[in-house]
Amino acid sequence: MSSDHSTNMPFDLKSHSDKIKLVLVGNPNVGKSVFFNALTGIYVDVSNFPGTTVDISHGIYNEYIVFDTPGVYGVSSFNDEERVARDVILSGDIILNVVDAVHMERDLFLTQQLIDMGKKVIVALNMMDDVKRNGLKIDIEKLSEMLGVPIIPTVAVHKIGLDEVKNKINTACTGNPISGIREKLKEVMPLVSNPSEALLVLEEDENIIARNNIQKDYNLREKIYHQRRERVNEIVDKVVTQTSQGASFKTRLSQMMLKPLTGIPILIFTLFIMYEFLGVFIAQTVVGFTEEIIMGTYYNNFIVSIFEPLLKGHNFLEKFLIGEFGILTMVPIYILGLLLPLVIGFYFLLSILEDSGYLPRIATLVDKSLTKLGLNGRAIIPIILGFGCVTMATITTRLLGSKRERFIATMLLGLAIPCSAQLGVIVGMTSSIGISYFLVYVLTIVLVFIITGTILNKILPGESTDLLIDIPPLRIPRIKNILSKTYTKTIMFLKEASPLFVIGAVLITFMEHFNILVGIQNIIAPLTEGFLQLPKEVATAFIMGIIRRDFGAAGLFSLAEQGLLNDAQILVSLVVITLFVPCIAAILVIFKERDWKESALIWFGSIFISFLVGGILSFILI
Amino acid sequence: MCLSNARPGQFIEIISIPDPDVKAQAIRFGIYEGAKVKCSEVINSGPVILQNRMQEIAVGHNLAKKIKIKLVS
């Protein structure tokens, strides 16, 4: 029964070729994963879709193989999530479409599109408890009649209706498409393998057109979308009635979050809570335990005691494996002891912001400011993550809408966002130089951030994309969802970033062994001493900052403790080390994500700007 | 007039949306030429928030400047 047109699915499904493919489809945050878990239980495989950061889960339920898909508003190819969802949907035999009952005018657009594709569809009309609360009434029988597919009302989080959905999956059927579409599909059918692809060809999906090698332009997307929209509006008009004005607290809170007068204090309060959790609890308490005690002491002693006797006399190999920047010493201590707790903490908070519906409101609130830097509100996500780990944040720039925005965001992250590893040491140092110098430091970094963004926005060709986002209702996030999101994102980060840290460590050991590091220090020494008016040893800290940004900052810390730096010099060197190139893993991820020209520009640009700003400050202050 | 000039509380009809891709994405949220929606919030020279029943959409300022609307009573 499995479709023979399975596209570039990343899974080995040969062993399940007798199973019926059931695909879960729905808009973002409609509770799809609750259905997925109810169907598949705990035996679930998560696979990455090639060339994307999108993960697809699949599991078995009776005679079905069940696929979860990323939340999308329609079947098309505006971003990675949509392209992946589209391909999984195309390969599916039955679609279980989860619909948010309160937002049918939005969700039914996707439902109607699935029906127009000729797919067998069954709809779970979820969040029925919210319907009453919002003073709405839905005529489910009428809805089912108009769409032509079975509709099952559910409250998935309270397990209401789940059994009925399970029992009725086999009643899924092809519904009532918008009028005239069947005739139009006939024209394309000889060129493609099924009606679903035919519809996407008519809707100008460039990937499907290219895949089927179709030359003719149908240009029907606007017309079909318009017709579909009108049909959905007609359905919603006929089946939904407003009985009373409901939900007032959430609506009021939502408005307060969006209005700058109340929204900015709420945002500042949220950031403060985040700082307390990440900057104080995770970065100090948790990392203090994981990095210094578990990894730095127990693990380190263990691994060194095993390898040291084996590697005696192999000086070079010993350095690579268990030396100061060893693959078996520094790399796991850094990744597991320091980064892992922080990355988990950041993704945990980000998932809460996302699932509660607050994140799109933050994006809306900050959109105006970010537009001036050539970004839009959505760029707040990599910027927040940057304070955790610039490497992780750089990977996330993929979600931005254009190449131009991805470049600006990457440059700003590499230049002016100090990662948590570095922040800890910087905060410690600034406390010794007094409040006025601390303010100068913060002001300088913020100014560099704003000026760089503004200039890039002026000089880069092209246009950035505009904000156009759905503001979902505020909801109390479900802990199970939060944990599973945090888990998948953290695993993705480890998979993507770990090899880069290994390569970075190898490069640095190599450079150190052949005295290349000392060479670089000597080359930049005149700049450090002459231009920045700092002692020569500071150059060592700058170079160490490339290995790990906190090493660099810690290097400065010890110079300051030895009394080699006065307050103004501490300030200048802190500014330079913050702006100076990001750590080697972040540099590698930049080279992976951007082309080499852009990466080189970001790299040399950061070095140039850091020394320029440091020089100016030193001219004024020292 | 353009969407960026709308004020909170006004009911408006969308007259035109410029870019075909933006058009395709907006129509899924119920924002399309001919749609009658409520402007529920405007951040000064920032995004405009449109409301259609329970659905809310934030439209960035630059995009709002390119969307033509008229007021409906």
Rg of chain B (CA only): 11 Å
CATH class of the domain at 14-242 in chain A: Alpha Beta
What is the assembly state of the chains in this entry? heterodimer
The CATH class label of chain B is Mainly Beta
Give an overview in words.
The complex is a heterodimer of chains A (622) and B (73). Helices cover 64% and strands 8% of the residues of chain A. Chain A is of the alpha/beta class. Chain A has a domain of 229 residues: P-loop containing nucleotide triphosphate hydrolases (Rossmann fold, 3-Layer(aba) Sandwich). Chain A has a 7-stranded mixed β-sheet, with helices on both faces. A two-stranded antiparallel ribbon of chain A has the order 7-9. The two termini of chain B are 15 Å apart. Chain B has a 5-stranded antiparallel β-sheet with strand order 4-3-2-1-5. The radius of gyration of chain B is 11 Å and the shape is globular. With 73 residues, chain B is α+β, with helices and mostly antiparallel strands. The mean pLDDT of chain B is 93. Chain B has a single domain, classed as SH3 type barrels (Roll), CATH 2.30.30. Chain B has 2 helices and 5 strands. The chains are: A alpha/beta (622), B alpha+beta (73). The interface between A and B is large, with 41 and 32 residues.
